[in-house]
Write a structure and sequence with these properties.
Number of domains: 1
Number of helices: 3
Radius of gyration: 9 Å
Shape: globular
Order of helices and strands: HHH
Number of strands: 0
Strand content: under 5%
Length: about 45
Protein backbone atom coordinates (compact mmCIF):
# COMPACT_ATOMS: atom_id res chain seq x y z
CA UNK A 1 0.00 0.00 0.00
CA UNK A 2 2.77 2.42 0.92
CA UNK A 3 4.65 1.69 -2.29
CA UNK A 4 1.57 2.18 -4.46
CA UNK A 5 0.76 5.45 -2.70
CA UNK A 6 4.32 6.66 -3.19
CA UNK A 7 4.26 5.78 -6.89
CA UNK A 8 0.92 7.54 -7.29
CA UNK A 9 2.23 10.68 -5.60
CA UNK A 10 5.33 10.66 -7.78
CA UNK A 11 3.30 10.27 -10.95
CA UNK A 12 0.96 13.06 -9.90
CA UNK A 13 3.88 15.36 -9.15
CA UNK A 14 5.56 14.45 -12.42
CA UNK A 15 2.49 14.93 -14.61
CA UNK A 16 -0.35 16.59 -12.68
CA UNK A 17 -2.62 16.49 -15.70
CA UNK A 18 -6.08 15.06 -16.16
CA UNK A 19 -4.85 13.11 -19.16
CA UNK A 20 -2.31 11.30 -16.98
CA UNK A 21 -5.03 10.33 -14.51
CA UNK A 22 -7.30 9.24 -17.36
CA UNK A 23 -4.57 7.06 -18.84
CA UNK A 24 -3.86 5.63 -15.40
CA UNK A 25 -7.52 4.73 -15.00
CA UNK A 26 -7.52 3.06 -18.40
CA UNK A 27 -4.29 1.13 -17.82
CA UNK A 28 -3.52 1.39 -14.13
CA UNK A 29 -1.08 -1.50 -14.08
CA UNK A 30 0.81 -0.32 -17.15
CA UNK A 31 0.99 3.22 -15.84
CA UNK A 32 2.27 2.10 -12.44
CA UNK A 33 4.84 -0.13 -14.13
CA UNK A 34 6.05 2.64 -16.45
CA UNK A 35 6.33 5.04 -13.53
CA UNK A 36 8.28 2.44 -11.61
CA UNK A 37 10.75 2.17 -14.47
CA UNK A 38 11.09 5.96 -14.60
CA UNK A 39 9.74 6.06 -18.15
CA UNK A 40 6.56 8.12 -18.08
CA UNK A 41 7.13 9.18 -21.69
CA UNK A 42 6.31 5.63 -22.78
CA UNK A 43 2.69 6.17 -21.70
CA UNK A 44 2.42 9.10 -24.11
Amino acid sequence: DNTIKLIGAGAFAFHPTLEWIFIGDRRGSLLAWDVSTERPNMIG
